Amino acid sequence: MGAGIAQIAVTAGHDTVGREVSAEVAERGRATVERYLARGVEKGRLTAEARDTALARLTLTTDLAELAGCDLVIEAIVEELEPKRGLFAELDRITRPDAVLATNTSALSVAAIAEATQHPERVVGMHFFNPAPVLPLVEIVRAPRSSDAAVDLAYQWAEQAGKRPVRCNDTPGFIVNRILIPLLNDCVRVLDEAGVTPEDLDTAMTNGAGWPMGPCALVDLVGIDVHVHASKALHAQLGEPRMAPPERLVAMQCEGKLGRKTGAGFYTY
Ligand SMILES: NC(=O)c1ccc[n+]([C@@H]2O[C@H](COP(=O)([O-])OP(=O)(O)OC[C@H]3O[C@@H](n4cnc5c(N)ncnc54)[C@H](O)[C@@H]3O)[C@@H](O)[C@H]2O)c1
Hints:
The protein is of the alpha/beta class. About 50% of the residues lie in helices and about 15% in strands.
């Protein structure tokens, strides 16, 4: 997600500092951005010159202090509360007081992250969707203490970058995951309850409900592990049985069948 968000930033014309835990991982992120932009040139979506200009805007570092001059910091580290809180406390010390600090968390409370700082009013959620350069939506999440100025800056940044931002409150799952996760869990349960194959379930939902993509193909794309993690987080916060990850998905995760990224999930890739 970090590489995808960096790609959005440089393509939108912003000088961007990408911070990773090691130079090697950072270079992998740069290679991802290069690959996607090269594909854009091949498909005629941008010129070779625009690609080179965009890539020149990206600098990489492992040193958090190099984010000191940023107007906006978008965090996309591991989906765990304590590392995120630790990072925001440090960012709060390093960055200018008027810089906005955003988290791309999918399922954690933005308020719980913001409260690790001395200035929770400048912390918001900017929830991108995967793949971030392709999917237009960005949920702009207002925590109870987020300021109007911080929310507006995040909204305008996303809009200027060509995304489609929408505002929402800091509630479990925000908008899309609150609706989609229990729905996809229902789909997976139907496989066993109704004795349906993944192919037939996807055929049913694309042809009968007009979904652009079948639910099994979608879970494979998202990643079984990512979906199970988000389901557990929603279930812990809202307690509805539908939110809990279906046994079938937990078993797939244990077998290492994580979807497209491992070459096997409901389908083989
Ligand atoms: N994968 C998705 O579909 C998706 C969609 C929307 C939002 N998100 C959110 O984006 C965030 C990142 O998700 P991802 O799928 O890219 O995860 P990932 O595990 O692929 O990437 C996390 C990156 O953070 C780096 N990292 C780990 N600890 C760090 C630290 N303490 N400081 C700095 N960097 C650190 C890792 O080196 C790694 O490159 C999560 O909060 C996730 O919930 C993910």
